[in-house]
Each structure stands twice: as C-alpha cells, then as structure tokens.
Design goal:
single chain, 224 residues, alpha+beta, 6-stranded antiparallel beta sheet, 5-stranded antiparallel beta sheet, 4 helices, globular
Length: 224
C-alpha cells in the first residue's frame, strides 16, 4: 500500500513538473516600462526598466494602428508593427501586434519569426497563406501547409517556421496579427541570403539554389 501511494505521489510530482515547464515564466513584477537611458533603472529582459514612480499612461499607449505601415520594398505590402521598441509598456509582457496591408497581388515574402508564434485574422480581402514544415525524420523532406483565407478567417504560423502571406484578390487586403513575444524578430529568407552585408559567398548561393554565378549577382543586385 505504501509503495503504491509513493508511486502515485511521484507520478503527480512528475506531471506537475512537466506542466510547469510548458508555460512561459511569469513576470517578476506588474510592468517594466522599457527605458532607453541605462541610468533609469534595472536591466530586465533585454531592456532597462523605468523607475515605476516615473511611469505614465503614455507608456502603455500608441496611436496609429488604424493606418498602413512601412512598405516591404517591391512587394506591394505594408507592415505596421507594434512591439516593445515602439510601445515600451510591452516589456516583459510577452505579446506584440502587427498589421499587414496589401495592394492587389501584394506579398509578404517567405520569412520567419525566431522568437514568436503568430496568429492572424483577415479583416478585408482574400489572402493565400502558408508555412513550411521540415519532416523531423528527414529534414530534406518539407511539407507545405497552405490555405486561402477570407474575411474573418484565422490562421496560425508556428514559431520559427518559414511562412508567407499573398493577396490573391484584385482589391486591397488587410490582416491583423498577434505574436507571443514582445520582440519576435523578423528574418526574410530571400533578402537575407542575397542582400546580406557582408554578402554570402557566390559559391554557397550558387550551389545551394542550383544557380550560375551570373544569376547570383543579378539576385544580389535586386536585394541589395
């Protein structure tokens, strides 16, 4: 009987430990307003925290999410990102927002967010979306998960996986998204490889993409 009870206790402790490790760590305090001045407070989660006595309501507020943001060069798309770098009150809270606007046939090209999962909802238009999933048993095999989304549809891109969004309609489209990181990061695949500084070697790119070096130079010129 004692052995059975001990076994049950060990199983419960193991399960609790497993559940606990699957959640994000809780913040150490209610808020930590990101400060640019290193003399303003303590360092936490990549930012300096403003002295709580100096915090104002404006630290939690940002206007301008009702309009499109910065253009993605040559793609017919625009990104309005609200992360900790624009809204200091997000520091340590593990969340950020993004708005994507598309001209007809506009594209957000394949990219990744290394530190965040993204969930989106289509506000207007018809958007073709998808992500790539490398087979864990054979990384050379990749599955694609794609879907055409209509107004009101929701889709999720798992953290770190390459994904894209493409407006397939003849009118503008708008998508709102949220990420479970205050600073999820953004790594564009094509421009990252062909537009890096200093550049990736011609031999590497030519062999990786089965291109001749002349084509590599042409692509580098497009993304530089």
């Amino acid at each position: 009987m004692a052995f059975c009870l001990l076994t049950i206790i060990l199983i419960i402790v193991g399960l609790l430990s497993s559940f606990g490790s699957s959640f994000d760590p809780s913040p150490f305090q209610d808020f930590c307003i990101a400060a640019s001045d290193s003399n303003a407070g303590v360092f936490m989660n990549g930012k300096f925290c403003k002295d709580p006595k100096l915090v104002t309501v404006d630290d939690f507020f940002l206007a301008g999410f009702n309009v499109s943001g910065n253009p993605v060069p040559g793609m017919g798309s625009f990104i309005n990102l609200v992360d900790v770098n624009r809204l200091p009150g997000l520091n340590t809270l593990g969340i950020s927002l993004v708005r994507a606007d598309f001209a007809p046939f506009g594209l957000i090209p394949p990219h990744t967010h290394p530190r965040g999962t993204e969930i989106i909802v289509v506000i207007e238009g018809y958007v073709y979306v998808g992500f790539l999933y490398p087979d864990p048993t054979n990384p050379l095999n990749t599955r694609s998960f794609t879907r055409i989304l209509n107004k009101g549809d929701v889709f999720v891109f798992p953290q770190g996986l390459i994904h894209f969004q493409y407006n397939i309609g003849h009118s503008n489209a708008t998508v709102f998204g949220a990420l479970n990181s205050q600073n999820a990061g953004l790594a564009m695949v094509a421009s990252g490889l062909f537009g890096s500084n200093p550049p990736v070697g011609d031999d590497v790119l030519a062999k990786a993409f089965q291109l001749d070096k002349k084509m590599v130079e042409q692509l580098r010129g497009l993304f530089s």
